Amino acid sequence: MMANRKIEEPIDWSVIIVTFQSQKVIKNCLESLFYQRGVRSEIFVVDNNSTDGTKEILEAFSTKIFFIENPSNEGFAKAANKALSRAKGRFVLFLNPDVVIKNPYFLEKIAALFDEIKTVGAIGPSLYYPDGQIQPTTSLQYPNQKWTLGSIPKYPGNIAALLGACLAIRKEILDQIGGFDEDYFLYGEDQDICLRIRKLGFSLAYSPQIQAYHIGGHSSENLSYKLLWERKLQAEYIFYKKHYPQQAIDLIAFSQLIKSNWQLFLLFFFGSSLLPKSRLHEKICKYKAIRSQAFAHLFHRFNQQRQP
Question: pTM of the prediction?
């Protein structure tokens, strides 16, 4: 006679949230997930060593979530992959802590789309700012793709990338590609994973009928403009080096060096009379970061070519 064994029901969704200094937003995000209906789900929250009270909130929800606490800020990709290695759902939703899902059948609707269209590897909903304005969440091209001069093949679908703030992906695909590329610390990892999904032969889908609300800017609110743009440009060049031919990267760097110097020249002479002080400072930081990354790349290439 066989002993009675508890049969675990399959899990539809694994929701993965990475937090850092998210005390103001994480409670609303989690509570909106607890009201999801029609699916079986598990929720992982990985905290990157917050010091603002985020961890205390997460500990209070310890019976409803899997809480993973990092001893340091490991960045988004590495933190998300920690949870991904434990995820059991058929689908995975990567969710920013400043997103609120008001529709209790949000996950059920996305699961139905995945089951209906087997060739779709990732789905993004429409995202709205708190004031009701819609947020851009899709890209039809990759950064500076025009400089690749047609060397990027035609991959499935018309959408190049979906915003990572609320991104649903089939778990089987994530297992194939190994999750997020941990060379990215913050920024760029969503475009990278979307491109790798398309390289496997799957398309991306945008579903405007499925909606969520995204405050936006949460991941960067604790960064100075200087650090913000440095990280964005570092991520951009990581993406180029992984996916673009060398000639295209050289063309991008050369064009960016010229453009950034010209923009800094204009800002130096006319910026203070045209822009508020804070906006002027942000633009200066932006173009200095662009110039720095472009120059570093071209200098490295020059030294490479000089070597015998």
Answer: 0.92
